[in-house]
Design goal:
By secondary structure, the chain is an alpha+beta fold. The protein has two helices and two strands, in the order ββαα. It has a domain at 14-60.
């Protein structure tokens, strides 16, 4: 099986000069802006990251076979305790 190293080019991620003090220790948090899950900037960053990830994953030759096998393993009759 031949494997070629695929160069992944990730989108640039901005860094902010932000730090906060926690229990007397100054902690740098340059990516705190990504914690705002309602921000359009965060949504754009996630979309760009997903484009890189999904295109890489889609190019894996054995992906569909692997997925089918996992679905076979996961799709079994499930039982649970009765409830009202």
């Amino acid at each position: 099986m031949k494997t070629e190293k695929q160069e992944l080019v990730y989108p640039a991620t901005k860094k902010m000069d932000v730090s906060e003090k926690y229990f007397g220790t100054q902690v740098s948090d340059p990516y705190i802006w990504l914690e705002d899950d309602t921000s359009s900037a965060t949504a754009e960053w996630v979309k760009a990251q997903n484009e890189v990830s999904f295109s890489y994953l889609a190019a894996i030759p054995s992906r569909s076979g692997f997925r089918k096998r996992l679905e076979t393993l996961w799709n079994y009759p499930k039982k649970s305790a009765p409830f009202r």
